[in-house]
Amino acid sequence: MKFKQKNLAGVIIVILSVIISLGTLISSNSIYTVKFKDGSDLYNHPILSDYDQFSQGNFSGYEFSYYNLSVYLDEKTSTVAGNLTVDYYNDDPVNFTQIPFHIYASGMQFDKRAGYIEILNVTTLEDPQEQLDYDVYSNIQLMWVNLTCNLEPGNRISFIISFNTTLPDGNSEKLDRASDYGWDDNHSRIFKFACCYPLPCVYDEFDGWNIDPYILIGDPFYYDMAYYDLIINVPENMTVAATGELIESMTIGERTIHHYNPHLPVREVTFSASHYFIVESDIIPYINITVSSYFLPKSYDLWHDFALEIAINSGSLYHNTFGNYCYSTFNVVEEYTHYGGMEYPLQIYASEAADNYTGVNGPHWYLESIIAHEVAHQWFYNLVGVDEVDWGFLDEGIVCWVSDWYKDVFHPDWHMFEPYWGLDRVRHYSLNYGLPNKINQSVPDCLISGTDYWYLGYTKTNTILEKLRVTLGHENFIEGLTLFFRDNYFEIADLTDLQNAFETVMGESLDWFFFPWFDNPYLPKYNIANVIYDAKSKIINITVKDTNEDLNPYSYSQLIPIKIYSSGLTLEYSDYEWINGTTSLIIPIANQPVRVRLDYSDFVLVQFSNYGLNYLETTDITIVNRSEQKIPGYNILLIILSFSAFGLIILFKKTQIPNE
Ligand SMILES: [Zn+2]
User: I want to staple 376 with a disulfide (CB 3.0 to 4.6 A). Which of 61, 235, 307, 402 is the partner?
Assistant: First the structure.
């Protein structure tokens, strides 16, 4: 729904309904007690059968694909030879004759040794094995496996892809998700196997097959849930961190084979291996999850106990708030990277650069920020999946907000929301960069339109979510995120699902919030256009104009503190008013006003047009129906009559004949 522009009647109806419904909401503040549409109480979740069942680890009656990934790490050649046994389940309503797989490694950054996935062959499972046709397009990091028959909905097909992955190297400027980096001399070498086996593409109703190439901006990945077995063959004495529970290890000669299984469906798997990892583990007893950290000796002072503590604290908060982390293991693993960290199911990576972080808050703050953020991705990326090519901002923005909330809970003295750090960055963004910044667009569209995806994903989306929390109240906001999580548990969610969850909690449409804040390229930029004070009726009429309105598809609605002063800067009026696009306000004011101000000191989102001025005001006030001036204590009529009488007397005297 658009409540915009040409259809004036529609605009008025929508604005009125917004004013009425939100007036009620805001006036009752954060203790607003709504019930769900089904009549249940605020903290009683609606019936969510999938969540109830899945969160107990019960997937009976549901079909998923199954992958068995078996890999062999060769540390001399920096390669990983692998077999991926695919048991693909078609849960889409169309027949398939081909299945595409991402082979991302050739898109990754490197120094001298490029990443590459060589496909050796694709065969059927039956004996004798039959070769299947396949096509490889390394330039777009894609392969198609051609099936010999139609794969109909609800059916399965099996085959084995044999491949050989070269792990890219790296340097101080280029390091990517997969790498063999570091040195044996100083005990710092780490092998990282991530995004570098043939990963099945997702078919959906929006794009058909999602076959986007590897993109360096954001974390643009998109996977369905599937069961995995992971067999990793490494040199003896190498320590491995991997997705899933270690089922067994076996050493044969100079090699050790580890078997991992996450037990429940995951979106992908990863492992990291090093001769030098130090391992620490702890169990969260009441949910029986083994949490482990893997780090290099050089990072002992920072990582020892601390990485585990942060993972456990943040994970417990998210688990107890949003819903079950239903797996039995979770790993935090040190990595070489140019970003802070990276999320994978059951295993996250955090940058070794935290050791030497020189920011004002220090290395502990930085590592804590990374871990709390990547842990939150277990809830918003793995358990609830997102097409991170088309809606990358969604899980990223949620995770940025959620990890800031973690900081607020565990470090109240950090004052994360007083005010929120993103508020001023968003208000100054156009002033600093002058770029349109619509949130709801894909990563490739950001590249085409020149939009800064990093700003959208990591600053603006979370700031808009914070505005939503301020608007709805904290309890409703957390309830909305929780409902979003549980409604989409083990599935794929998009922005509409997030809006639906908040609407269910609030029991009303939130189009007025979501459409403009997520879909407009520009923030509102207000102008106090026309101020008229009627001195007779003592009413001021203020027109607030959004000068960016024509640049945006939707009109903004937000509460803005309005202040009106009379002479001597006496405050005559101070209250919140809804500004819905271009808005006329009619306010009774007893004394003649001299100054009208929109105060941006609160969580008002506007495009600032200069630095350091957090209000907009005017003294240009037209006074109408000004009454005649009176001299106090005198009756003007009496004065006029007196003067007239005096004049008559003079005249009378002048007309007399002089008596001389
Ligand atoms: Zn993230």
Answer: 402
Q: What angle do CA 289, 313, 603 make, to 5 degrees?
A: 135
In the prediction, which pLDDT does 650 show?
54
Q: How far apart are CA 114 and CA 167, in angstroms?
A: 7
CA of 343 to the centre of ligand 1 (A): 7
> Do 345 and 417 have their domain in common?
no
Distance 171 CA to ligand 1 centre (A): 23
C-alpha span between 15 and 557 (Å, rounded): 8
Domain containing residue 418 = 33-57+403-508
Cα-to-centroid distance, 375 and ligand 1 (Å): 9
- Indicate whether 370 belongs to any domain: no
Q: Are residues 612 and 549 in the same domain?
A: yes
3-class SS of residue 373: helix
CA of 330 to the centre of ligand 1 (A): 17
Q: From ligand 1's centre to the CA of 342, what distance in Å? A: 7
- Kindly report, residue by residue over 375-386, the tens digit of the pLDDT: 999 999 999 999
pLDDT in tens, 34-72: 333 344 333 333 444 689 999 998 998 899 999 999 999
- Do residue 293 and residue 243 come from a single domain? no
CA 71 – ligand 1 centroid, Å = 27
pLDDT of residue 434: 81
Residue 373 lies in a domain: no
Exposed/middle/buried for residue 441 (C-beta within 10 Å: 0-12, 13-18, 19+): buried
- What is the Å distance from ligand 1's center to 400 Cα? 7
User: Is 369 domain-assigned?
Assistant: no
Q: How far is the CA of 626 from the centre of ligand 1 (A)?
A: 61
User: How much distance in Å is there from the Cα of 396 to the middle of ligand 1?
Assistant: 5
State how far the Cα of 253 lies from the Cα of 324, in Å rounded to an integer: 41
Q: Could you report the per-residue pLDDT of 146-161, keeping only the tens digit for each?
A: 999 999 999 999 999 9
CA of 203 to the centre of ligand 1 (A): 24
In a domain, residue 557? The reply is: yes
- State the distance from the centre of ligand 1 to the C-alpha of 68, rounded, in angstroms: 27
Tell me, in angstroms, the distance from the centre of ligand 1 to residue 199's CA: 20
Q: Report the separation in Å between the CA atom of 220 and the middle of ligand 1, taken as the mean of its atom positions.
A: 11
> In whole angstroms, what is the distance from residue 88 CA to residue 34 CA?
44
Distance from residue 88's CA to the centre of ligand 1 (Å)? 29
Cβ neighbours around 574 below 10 Å, total? 12
Q: Could you tell me the distance, in angstroms and rounded to a whole number, from the CA of residue 350 to the centre of ligand 1? A: 11
| Domain identity same for 90 and 236 | yes
For residue 323, the CA-to-ligand 1 centroid distance in Å is 19
Please tell me the distance between residue 376's alpha carbon and the centre of ligand 1 in angstroms. 8
- Phi (first) and psi of residue 62, to 5 degrees: -115, 140
d(CA 95, ligand 1 centre) in Å: 35
**Together in a domain, 153 and 247:** yes
Print the SS3 string covering 444-506.
HHHHHHCCCHHHHHHHHHHHHHHHHHHHHCHHHHHHHHHHHHHHCCCCEECHHHHHHHHHHHH
Nearest of 478, 474, 550, 465 to residue 513 by alpha carbon? 465
Q: Specify whether 8 is located in the same domain as 46.
A: no
186 and 241 share a domain?
A: yes
Residues 224 and 317 in one domain: no
CA of 598 to the centre of ligand 1 (A): 36
Pairing relationship of beta strands 255-261 and 226-235 according to DSSP bridges = antiparallel
